[in-house]
Write a structure and sequence with these properties.
The complex is a heterodimer of chains A (37) and B (153).
Chain A: E1 10-14
Chain B: E1 3-5, E2 9-20, E3 23-28, E4 42-43, E5 62-65, H1 68-78, E6 101-114, E7 118-132, H2 136-146, E8 149-152
Parallel strand pairs in B: 7-8
Antiparallel strand pairs in B: 2-3, 2-6, 4-7, 5-7, 6-7
Classes of the chains: A mainly beta (37), B mainly beta (153).
């Protein structure tokens, strides 16, 4: 891919507070129905 | 000395969408059979510089364009469609059957080398995808796999 001339390069350091990678939602524990005694 | 930022750059690029065993994956547009992992960052690797990619004066790193128009220009060149004299194409060309392409935004971070039209980055993950030549089912599959928005176009 052509992204411009190499002589225009400048370096940027990006340190995100949180990586922009989605994490799967935690599995929810099944809730037990209260059974009337 | 480089500038330091905390917000990822969001740029534009293209991917091939190819089947790997029982699921589809995003693949590098220019490197054959280099697939992008799901739910973890894609990391630049260079045969010469290893994990130091991207390196000044070399062509290594994960590539992306500054604008959607630049990514679409590459797609037109890839599909062999060029501008008429003095008249631009505004519609994307049809693709070969069974060879879908994803056009989309990508988050870039780590060491990033900026040029006039785009970037070479150390780490990347898709941000949002527009599927070209794929159906709703493929969009759903990629959405579930990469956990990002995928729109069939």
């Amino acid at each position: 891919m052509e992204i411009g001339a190499p002589d225009t390069e400048r370096e940027i350091e990006i340190v995100p507070l949180e990586e922009p990678v989605p994490v799967p939602a935690p599995a929810e524990a099944p809730v037990e129905e209260p059974v009337p005694s | 000395m480089s500038e330091i930022h905390t917000e990822p750059i969001v740029a534009w690029r293209l991917w091939h969408v190819r089947r790997h065993e029982d699921e589809h994956r995003l693949e590098s547009f220019t490197w054959h059979h280099v697939s992008w992992p799901a739910r973890r960052r894609f990391e630049a690797r260079c045969p010469t510089h290893g994990e130091a990619a991207p390196v000044h004066g070399h062509e290594c790193g994960i590539y992306a364009f500054r604008t959607r128009e630049l990514a679409e220009d590459l797609l037109r060149r890839y599909t062999g469609i060029r501008q008429h004299y003095g008249r631009r194409y505004h519609e994307l060309p049809p693709l070969r059957q069974g060879c879908p392409i994803a056009l989309g935004r990508v988050s870039l971070w780590g060491r990033v080398i900026a040029r006039q039209h785009g970037f070479r980055a150390q780490y990347a993950y898709p941000y949002e995808l527009f599927l070209i030549g794929g159906d709703d089912g493929l969009a759903r599959e990629l959405r579930g796999l990469y956990a990002v928005d995928v729109s069939p176009s």
